[in-house]
Amino acid sequence: MGKNILITGGAGFIGSHLSKRLVKEGHNIICLDNCFTGSKSNIQELLHLNNFNFMYHDITNPIEIDEPIDQIYNLACPASPIHYQHDPVKTVRTNVMGAINVLELARRKNATVFQASTSEVYGDPTVHPQVEEYWGNVNPIGLRSCYDEGKRCAETLFFDYHRQYGVKIKVVRIFNTYGPNMHPNDGRVVSNFILQAIRGEDITIYGDGGQTRSFCYVDDLVEGFICMMNSDEEFIGPVNLGNPGEFTIKELADIVIEMTNSASKVTYKDLPQDDPKQRKPDISLAMEMLKWEPTIPLKEGLLKTISYFLTLEGDTSDVFTR
Ligand code: NAD
Ligand code: UDP
């Protein structure tokens, strides 16, 4: 028998992949979204299915659902710096009020509730690679703080609802994830570089390109979500989910240029405020507790992502033959 599962932010990049995977497994999905950065086009193929329902709602408002709910994945929150800085006060409200509304629903329904937290809780880390025990190095008043501190407060709420009310929680810290359905205009490095390369525009590196990130393909991440949600009830996290392969931003630019056979040149722009210098997950805990680790190497994932953006741009040429 399928479970009744609510996914907030289910029309977004990661949420749409999670929705498709869980629908395919035969669960009954309620996909809740206010379509700020997500879109029904990401879940178009699911809209007509009997075991999929779309609920237009903003999680800053209380969530009323009549049916029983077994599991809740809380993904609703803009994730890219451009989007979360567009209305920073709203970003804090989404993280904090949203978490309270989702946790209250979980409490009423006796559901297990999963929080999509982030590597941003580590800020500009002084411990490398990042382990879950590290408390982070976050500027509380900077441009990224609405997201970083909002997500940190959401983790606090999850653990307090667990301790105070016995709500069953699961908290994961997601590291940079990429793949099809990324928003083309959200300014994230993977989507920017691919679009710039296939349009023949300059590739914009912020700073000297020496900063590092670790990129996880979305299918690997979704697998990790499901392993965590269905793990032993005692294991509540937080647990890092990401691909430990670490690349400088300059290396990523070179790989994308090579894979798209692009004539684009690299151009250097100012580094945004508080941009973390290095980021790489230590995933020992996920490997031990969830028996999970990513399986899709960067070039393989990039190939699928480049194909997606080529189609979006109306270019039907095969990536291999460009
Ligand atoms: P996304 O912006 O594509 O998806 C977020 C979804 O939430 C969108 O569909 C958006 O419309 C919806 N949303 C935003 N505010 C809402 C609100 N107030 N009420 C209802 N819906 C709302 O981003 P994503 O990359 O899919 O990220 C999903 C989650 O994973 C986010 O919580 C994000 O913080 C977290 N995360 C993502 C990454 C990453 O690399 N993509 C890394 C760390 C954490
Ligand atoms: N970045 C870049 N050029 C771009 C977009 C991003 O050099 O066009 C850099 C950005 O400054 C950061 C890294 O790439 O150092 C990852 O940025 P992204 O916004 O994708 O994620 P986050 O900073 O949240 O990890």
UniProtKB/TrEMBL annotation:
<dbReference type="GO" id="GO:0033320">
    <property type="term" value="P:UDP-D-xylose biosynthetic process"/>
</dbReference>
<feature type="domain" description="NAD-dependent epimerase/dehydratase">
    <location>
        <begin position="5"/>
        <end position="234"/>
    </location>
</feature>
<keyword id="KW-0520">NAD</keyword>
<dbReference type="Pfam" id="PF01370">
    <property type="entry name" value="Epimerase"/>
</dbReference>
<dbReference type="InterPro" id="IPR001509">
    <property type="entry name" value="Epimerase_deHydtase"/>
</dbReference>
<keyword id="KW-0210">Decarboxylase</keyword>
<keyword id="KW-0456">Lyase</keyword>
<dbReference type="InterPro" id="IPR036291">
    <property type="entry name" value="NAD(P)-bd_dom_sf"/>
</dbReference>
<dbReference type="GO" id="GO:0070403">
    <property type="term" value="F:NAD+ binding"/>
</dbReference>
<protein>
    <submittedName>
        <fullName>NAD-dependent dehydratase</fullName>
    </submittedName>
</protein>
<dbReference type="InterPro" id="IPR044516">
    <property type="entry name" value="UXS-like"/>
</dbReference>
<dbReference type="GO" id="GO:0005737">
    <property type="term" value="C:cytoplasm"/>
</dbReference>
<dbReference type="GO" id="GO:0048040">
    <property type="term" value="F:UDP-glucuronate decarboxylase activity"/>
</dbReference>
<dbReference type="GO" id="GO:0042732">
    <property type="term" value="P:D-xylose metabolic process"/>
</dbReference>
<keyword id="KW-0963">Cytoplasm</keyword>
